[in-house]
Amino acid sequence: MRKISLFLLLAMLIQSCGISAQKASLSGTIADLPADAKVVLTKVAGDQILPVDTLKLDNNGAFKVALTLDQPTLYLLHATSERNSFCHLMVEPKEKIQLDMIYVADRKTFKITHCKGSKNVDLYRQFNDILLGAVNSTTQALVPSQVENLLLQNKQVLMSAFLSTFFEQEFDAHVSLYVQLRDALLPEYPNDQFVKRLAERLKGVVAPGMVAPDIEMKDPDGNVRRLSDLRGKVVLLDFWASWCGPCRHENPNVVRLYNKYHDKGFEIYSVSLDKSREAWVKAIKDDHLSWPNHVSDLQGWTSTGGKTYGIMSVPSTVLIDKDGTVIARNLRGEELERKLNEIFN
Questions:
Q1: What is the band of 141 on the pLDDT scale with cuts at 50, 70, 90?
Q2: Cα(227)–Cα(212) distance, rounded to whole angstroms?
Q3: Burial code of 89-109, b = ≥16 C-beta within 10 A, e = fewer?
Q4: Distance CA 287, CA 24 (A)
C-alpha cells in the first residue's frame, strides 16, 4: 500500500505570499512515545526542510510552541527514534491549534485523536485515520475512494491541495478531483504554491465538461481520420499501444462493448502510442479491433494525440458525448459498461 511521503514531493513549493508575519501556535499532548524518542518540529521552506524546535514535553506529554509565519506553512513532527514517523501539520497565520496525539508504535506514526482550531489539521487527522484503518487487503482496497470522497467534501480546505498528491501516480484517473480542488481553492489562495501546483498539473489536460479537442491523424493505410468526424455519436477515445499489457488485457472488454452498443450510436477512436507500424497493425488484427478509426503517428510518448489530451500513461480513455463534450476520463471495465448502459438505456 502507498506510504505518505508528501513532504519530499512538495518540498520546493512554499514561497512567500508577500504578507506581514503573524503569530500562531501549536499546543497539545503526545502520548505513548518511546522512552528514548524526542519530537522534532521542522518546516518546509522553499527547497529545504528547516529545523524549528525540539518539543519540550512535560511529565504529562504536554507541549506548546509559538510560531511566526507570513503564509500557510507545512510543519512536520518527527519522532527521532523512527525514520519515517512524520505527522504533517498545515498552519495558517494567526491560528491557535490544540491537538492531542498518540504514537502508534506498530505503525511507527502519530495518530491525532483530537484537534481544535484548524480545519487543515483536522482534515489531515481524517486522512491519516483512513490510512491507519487499512489493516488488510479488503480495507486497503477502499482507501482510494475514501480519500477521494474526503477531499471532495473538504475541497475548500487548503490541506486538500497538499493531500491530493496521494493520487499522483494515478493522476489520469483522478483528473476530476484535481479540477474541483483547483477551482475551489484558487479564489481563496491564488498565491499558494500547493494550489498553483494543481493548476500547473492540469495544464493541457482535458477534463469532464470541456469540449473535446480535435485529433487529426492517419490510419494504417495512410488515410486521415478526424475525431470530429464522429460528432453525433458517443465516442470512446482510447489511448493504447501494442506493447501495453493492461491495454491488451482490456481489449476484449472494449470489443464486447463496441459490439453491444455500436448499433445504438457508439464509436471508438483508438490512438496508438506505438512506434512500430507492424506491431500496431498486428495487435489490431490479433485483438479483433474491428472498428475503422485506428490512428497513430508512430511517435510513441510524443504522439500529438497523446499530447493534446495530456496522456501520461496507457491505457487511458476519454468518453465523449454526441455534442463533443467530455463525459468522463479513464472509465474501463464495469465502470465503462455502467456508463454506456446509462447513456443508451
A1: very high
A2: 9
A3: bbbbbebebbbbbebeeeeeb
A4: 61
